[in-house]
Amino acid sequence: MRTRSRRASLLLAALAGVVIVGTVAAADPSPPQVPPGQAKSKTAEKGPEVAFTGSGEISVSEDGQGRPEYAITVSGKTWTLSGGPKWFWGTDSPLAAYVGETVDVVGTYREGSTEVDVTTVNGTAIREEGRPPWAGGPARVGEKHPGWKAQDEKPGRGLGRELAPGQAKKNQDNPQTE
Prior knowledge:
alpha+beta, about 180 residues, 5-stranded mixed barrel, CATH 2.40.50, 6 strands, about 20% helix
């Protein structure tokens, strides 16, 4: 009798395993839908990166916020040049030294865009290899980062144990607390 119940238990376990495997195998193989604004990379939404090489005179104008905007016209098409974020460089862009000169520019752009991320001008790199100087957020970049807040405006930072919320409670063991 005992062997019969073991056989029945094994048969039920095997049947349950087949049902589970069948359910997993029948699952929808398509990737799950990602809610809008939750994509892991915005570069996936942009076109592929394309190499750019062009010769022309670099000109400068102002954007809507009064910051310098550099451009080059190559074969009748005007390209906006970027040496990094405008908020970081301000008027100290490495492209400023080449305004009014006819130069050879190498960089990349996204398909469907006219903005070139410049890597070299006349064969000279406009910044060092590796992590760009504007990377790392406001804590690393400092006051010129658009997300910068003064140290005293950051809640929960630099308060110390004595001033941290919930730490200054009266108790009999420590009469110095309020």
